[in-house]
Amino acid sequence: xxxxxxxxxxxxxxxxxxxxxxxxxxxxxxxxxxxxxxxxxxxxxxxxxxxxxxxxxxxxx
Length: 61
Hints:
Blueprint: E1 28-33, E2 39-45, H1 53-56
Antiparallel strand pairs: 1-2
């Protein structure tokens, strides 16, 4: 288990993801910064989800 603080950034835009996360409690929020500087939430991942699986597989199935 990896403790994360509220508001922690898991990966920066164009950054390389180094871990796969399976949230045990709370949520992971995917946020996109728009061209005008505004941020929008595009997805939420909870206990039944995973964050970072695709990069971990290098896009393979």
